[in-house]
Amino acid sequence: MSEKNCIIVTGATRGLGYNFCKFISKLNWDIILIDISKNAFKVYNENKKLSDLKKNLQNNNRLKFFYGDLSKEKNVKKIFSEIKKSKMVPTGLVNFAGGDIKGDDKLAKGGKAKNNNLFINTKDYKSIYERNYYSTLFTCREFIKISKKKKLGKIVNVSSISGTYGSVNEFAYSSAKSNIIYLTRSFANYAKDFNINVNCIAPCGTTSARFLKTIKKRGKKDLLRLGKKNLNGFASPEDISKVVYFLLSDLSNFVSGQIIRIDGGETTSPF
After folding, report:
1. Which residues pair with 157 in a beta bridge?
2. From the centroid of its chain, how far is CA 139?
3. pLDDT truncated to tens, each residue of the chain (271 aa)?
C-alpha cells in the first residue's frame, strides 16, 4: 500500500461502514465514502446531520462523498469516473454495501422482506441478491480497472457467517453472501498478477446501531448473548474494523483469496 492510504468504502455513512470510516480516520487515511443517498446516514440515528458525520470523520485526512445505487452497473461506472476526476487515488476498497434491508433512494429506509425464508417471493429475492452480490461485483471490477496499471491495491468484501453455512430464515441474504465468497476467490485468482489482494470477511452479528435497533425483534438466544463481553457474545464494530484494517495494511501483503470469519468461534466448519 502507499504511504498515504485512500480507501473507498461502500455503505459508508451508517452501520459497520460508518464505524470503519471512524476507525481509519484516526489513522489519517483519506476516505472515499459511497452510499445510496445523501440521507442514508439517518437510518440508524448515528448522526443527526451530515455535518456531524463529516466532523466525526475529519482528521488530517481528505473526505469525498458519492451517492448512488451500486446494484446498477451504470451508477457504479459513473461514480468511479467521478472518483478519477477528483484526483484522489484509491489504494483500497471495502464493500460494506448490501444487507437484507431495502434501500430507498430518498431515505434509504425500509424493512426486511416480509418472507425471507425458502419461500421468499422472486421480487424480494432479486432485490436482496442484487444489493449484495451485484454491488460487490461491479465495484470490484471498476476498482481493479483503475488499480491494474499501478499494480497496487487491496479489496475487502463483506460476506456473513450465514453465507458460510446457509440460513433457512435468511434465504436470499445467505445465498447472496455465499456467492460473494466465491466471487472473492475468483477475483483474487485474477488480480494476483497485478499485485492486488482480494479477501473477504464473514462476520457474525455485531453490536452495531442497526443490530441494536432491531434487538427487540430478535429471539431469546440473541438477547442472552447481548450482554456478554467474551467469545460467547457478539462482535463489536471495532472487532470488525480491526480485521478489515489488517487486510488493507502491509501486514497482509501475502494474504489473498481468504475468507476470514469473525464470529468468536461460533462456526467451526472447515469452509
Report:
1. 95, 200
2. 11
3. 545 799 999 999 999 999 999 999 999 999 999 999 998 888 777 888 989 999 999 888 999 999 999 999 999 999 999 999 998 999 999 999 987 655 433 333 334 555 566 777 888 888 889 999 999 999 999 999 999 999 999 999 999 988 888 777 778 888 999 999 999 999 999 999 999 999 999 998 777 776 666 665 655 566 556 556 566 678 889 999 999 999 999 999 999 999 999 988 877 765 5
- Give which of 252, 246, 254, 250 is closest to 262, Cα–Cα: 246
Query: What is the C-alpha separation between 193 and 78, in angstroms, rounded?
Result: 26
Between the alpha carbon of residue 1 and those of residues 66, 91, 154, 191, the distances in Å are 23, 6, 8, 15
Kindly report the CATH number that applies to the domain delimited by 6-205+237-261: 3.40.50.720
Sign for the pseudo-dihedral over CA of 79, 81, 82, 88: positive
φ, ψ (nearest 5 deg) of residue 9:
-125, 120
Cell of 185: 476467490
| Grid cell at residue 190 | 485474477
**All three cell numbers of 210:** 442497526
DSSP string of 172-204, one letter each residue: HHHHHHHHHHHHHHHHHHHHGGGTEEEEEEEE-
Q: Cα dist. 151→73, 127, 185, 193, 200 in Å?
A: 24, 34, 18, 8, 20
Is residue 257 within 8 Å of 184, Cβ to Cβ? yes
Measured CA distances, 107 to 40, 43, 174 (Å): 6, 8, 25
What residues does each domain of the chain span? 6-205+237-261
Cell numbers 451530515: residue: 50
